[in-house]
Design brief:
Number of strands: 13
Radius of gyration: 23 Å
Strand order of the largest sheet: 2-9-8-7-6-3-4-5
Shape: globular
CATH superfamily of the largest domain: Type I PLP-dependent aspartate aminotransferase-like (Major domain)
CATH class of the largest domain: Alpha Beta
Number of domains: 2
Number of helices: 14
Largest sheet: 8 strands, mixed
Length: 440
């Protein structure tokens, strides 16, 4: 199939972004696009779009963490030798910085290692082995289940699967999970101990939880007295537009609802500074911080305080971090726009195909007609573009409609994004043609 497009279609197919992005300068709207799938495959491309990794030029923004800050010494503000053991909950100034970033008192924040995913894993393991406050060990209570909004984050689901936790899929809307479904399930089943939540620029749809959804999560009646919100605030500062949407104050909402211990918040600087050497944060009620300290004291004598110290010196405060994130946005937004332009140019005429135009975060969700996502991923791989497996955004890797694709446009170059967008679009069209021929 050869597609001739002389202009980009109008409109907002995704419904997530309410105004059009500017077309990046390297996209020529007047150029006729005549490349075929076969021609792209012949180019032997090698573009990896499987994960939301920062590009090298984003990592370069924080090179001073390595080059400059390390030369300032190893003693903290209070004279703590950061080379040594101790301070299980993190350096005091690191907890203060975390409190600034999360809008919480420092004594409700724990500063950890480089990975918030590691903290989430530990929190569930602690709950399974020791229980939360109050309550017995989850592993002694029989079956344990979690609600999983879908499409969702595959690594959340991997934790549950590895620990034998039954996953229950619930639909994700533009304003958060389907609360009618969530409330019905948690009220009836005491085995449901938690729900995964990415409240701002959710992975992978870019959904932004509405105040109404947040209040319902905080207020809802649960059959399990030890139910927890696993609040993964991974994209709190990762804006793609000039408008900075704010993460909801979930701890305050839970306290007002009479459930002060319900929410466990996780965040990190992994996509702010250095992806493999960031600083992770856990935040919750003071009772939950005490619970964390008791459980974590068995597995560690303290975090990497040198890394925490250099983050405090480099980032300093929330305003400094936000200026850094503006520089990230300048790198990322044109890539998202390039992908959107390619998809519009080659798929804009297909009524049953849609994709998100997120206001922040690291991913675009592409929705194919039912039954075509897996084949599209296969064809794209044959043409040199590797995507996350179809179905990865669903528990057990099973998308019952086989229609969702997660696209991560952050790491490749802008030129590669344009190529990859064309490969993905033409792979989908080829898959649709195959379907027509099978039915003929």
């Amino acid at each position: 199939m050869r597609i001739n497009i002389t202009r980009l279609p109008e409109g907002n197919l995704g419904g997530i972004l309410d105004r059009d992005w500017p077309v990046p300068p390297f996209i020529d709207k007047t150029t006729t696009m005549t490349t075929t799938y076969e021609e792209l495959r012949a180019q032997r491309l090698s573009i990896d779009m499987t994960r939301g990794k920062p590009a090298a030029d984003q990592l370069d923004l924080s090179q001073a963490l390595i080059d400059d800050v390390a030369a300032a010494g190893y003693l903290s503000r209070d004279g703590i030798d950061c080379r040594n053991y101790g301070h299980l909950l993190g350096l005091p100034e690191a907890r203060e910085l975390g409190g600034q970033l999360l809008g919480l008192p420092a004594d409700q924040v724990v500063a950890g290692g480089n990975s918030s995913l590691e903290l989430m894993h530990d929190a569930i393991v602690f709950a399974m082995l020791h229980g939360v406050v109050p309550g017995e060990a989850w592993c002694r209570a029989g079956e344990v289940a979690f609600l999983c909004p879908v499409p969702g984050y595959d690594r959340h689901f991997a934790i549950c699967e590895a620990l034998g936790i039954r996953m229950i899929a619930v639909p994700m809307n533009d304003d958060g999970p389907d609360m009618d479904r969530v409330e019905s399930l948690v009220a009836a089943d005491p085995a449901i101990k938690g729900i995964w939540c990415v409240p701002l620029y959710s992975n992978p749809t870019g959904a932004i939880y509405s105040p109404q959804v947040v209040r319902r999560l905080a207020q809802m009646t649960t059959a399990a007295s030890d139910f927890r919100l696993f609040w993964d605030d991974a994209y709190r500062f990762h804006h793609l537009t000039e408008e900075r949407y704010a993460s909801p104050a979930i701890l305050a909402e839970c306290a007002r609802a009479g459930h002060p211990d319900r929410a466990l918040i996780f965040a990190s600087t992994s996509k702010v500074t250095l992806a493999g050497a960031g600083m992770a944060l856990f935040a919750s009620s003071r009772r939950n911080v005490d619970w964390w300290q008791r459980c974590a004291s068995v597995r560690t004598i303290g975090p990497d305080k040198l890394n925490q110290l250099r983050h405090v010196r480099y980032l300093r405060d929330r305003a400094t971090l936000e200026r850094l994130m503006d520089r990230h946005r300048a790198i990322l937004q044109p890539k998202f726009a390039a992908l959107d332009a390619s998809l519009h140019a080659l798929l804009g005429d297909l009524a049953e195909v849609s994709w998100t135009r997120p206001k922040g975060g690291y991913f675009v969700s592409l929705f194919t007609p039912d039954g075509y996502a897996k084949r599209t991923v296969e064809l794209a791989a044959e043409a040199g573009v590797v995507l996350t497996p179809a179905g990865a955004a669903f528990p057990y890797g099973d998308d019952p409609r086989d229609r969702h694709l997660r696209i991560a446009p952050s790491c490749p170059s802008a030129a590669q994004i344009e190529q990859a967008g064309a490969v993905i679009a033409l792979s989908l069209r080829r898959a649709l043609d195959e379907g027509v021929r099978r039915r003929a």
